[in-house]
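To fix ideas, we give here one paired sequence and structure record:
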Amino acid sequence: MTDDPRPGVPRVGVLLPTGEHALAGDFAAAPLLEFARRAEQLGFDSVWAGDSLTARPRLDPLVLLSAVGAVTSEVTLGTAALTAALRPPLAGANTIAALDQVCDSRLVLGLGAGFPIPESEAEFAAAGVPFEGRVGRLDETAALWRAAWRSTRQGAPTGFEGRRWRIEGLDRLPAPHRPGGPPLWLASSDTPRVLERVARLYDGWLPFLPSAEAYGRARRRIEELAVAAGRPADAVTPALYATLAVDTDRERARRELDHYLRQYYGRTLEQMSPLQAYAWGSAEECVEWLAGRSAGTASQRHPIPAGTVGSQLAWLVTRYPDVHQALKDPRLSADELAPGAPVRLQVPQEGRPSSFLRMDDPEHSRLRGMIVPEFTARRVRGMEPAIQRLVDELLDELGALPRPADLHDVFSMRLPTLVIARLLGVPDEDSEFFTAKTRGALSQGDPEASYAAFLDMSRYLEDMVDRSVRAPGDDLIGRLATRQVAGEITRDEIVGIARLVLVAGHETTTNQIALSTLSLLQDRELRARVLADPAGLIPRYIEESMRFWSLSQDAILRVALEDMDLGGVTVHKGEAVVISIPAANHDESVFPDAGRIDVHRDTSPHLQWGLGPHYCLGAPLARLEMELALTSLFRRFPGLELATDDANSLFRRETVFHGLTSLPVSW
């Protein structure tokens, strides 16, 4: 982890399941060695082993890591965490030096003093070591090890004298492979005394804090304390020990994690969550959770889906100033055909960009310019009467339904779909087809189904373009078809534009209306405040809701055209970049108390619609639809209420845009 030459790059490791195997009565080493080999093949940066003598017995971590070092060549090897106080310190120094020789300096030692729980106390008693004073014993053990590992240096002391041990002749011990020995990280909490010890005595900090905010505060405090102790601010490597249950079914992941904790600790997830870091859900949700723990770092690299061919590493840009730069920097290309370019949708590339969204100038400007007149402020204002009539018709249909009704199905999904369909020239009766195909294409759970939906949508639009060439209508596709006849644009380019307008135009507005409504239904005080002055506050609420919900789930992709600095790290030519709009819109340095909806906040800096040459053309239309929808909805149904106690179950998973599957309401 400390070997990466690029600063600020979190690296991801995996814990060998020694404890889990021991629970099943299996102490065989071969499966664990195969696990380590597989972890290295999959691209994990490190492999770790836990430690316990009697509390949760397992294979000795130092012996096991020695074997792992023999069957791997690249991954860092670590203990998480070694209870050093249970081992004779001189023997420990010797064993660790030998292990470091076996693994060629790939070793990191996470050290723990032992949890103050009955199981740990019994373990210390069984080893004949006093439980009281274990913290001082750990710190002195670490100091003795360092003295032993450095004793062969010219002029270095060859003895050690502490409160507990006095030892001479340390230079006779074998030296570790890494000069000075492996880094020592303290596995601990965030109490003031612990942070002071970390900053003064250790090379790294390996906490298990459940709160991202507490983690960020502690990291900053360690930097301050390190400087006060005469060390560089970055002397201590920050890390995190977390348990993740990854499953496309979030509830199933939660149940699996709860079952594991009951088996392992004899405690429930509810009991353990305030004590340690846990996350569960899809891979994307777990990555997002981990990104929140990297609040002190501008950028990180993490795996992202890359079409149907697997995944690749990409820089994840999270801080507002860095996102702002990345959106406008011409050194970051949107061209999905450029070498190294990431792909978010689970569909194969076809030798050309899917739309001008994934192009650079001059092609981007040429194609984008052809539809700019369709989304001017004047053109959008002219659409208001027709959109209001459509809003009223859909609310009439909602009012005629039995209660509870699904507001999302009847209103928030249909309104933007019909608006965009009519703008394109798609018949109303085909709007449900496009809703289903759009959602299928954006899904991240089943690549084959995503591609099938993408092809169905494309074939429909191809037929529509062909018909419009023969008989162009007064709609966007008809006007583009006329330009095709004039040789200004190709059929494939029209299909790409239509597909982009259809997907982006209805998916974003659909989900923003639904989520904005959900927030008002869940927060009575917010609802009363906004509806007391709808003309003045609904537009402000819409802007704040867009910032708060930030629909695009890491879907803004770029690739570096040259080596460049971004957020204090070097992004090399050909490396992929994912620009996180949600993270930027929740940057506390720009939006204090970002996790709360505040209609009086200055939301002008929010980046929901992007920035620079790729700023969303449809933003004025989306704002108009949202304003008409929310104003009319709560005027027509002032007693509207959420008809479920489980709002979390309403959210979509495994998709590019944040949103809801349904919104049950009553009135």
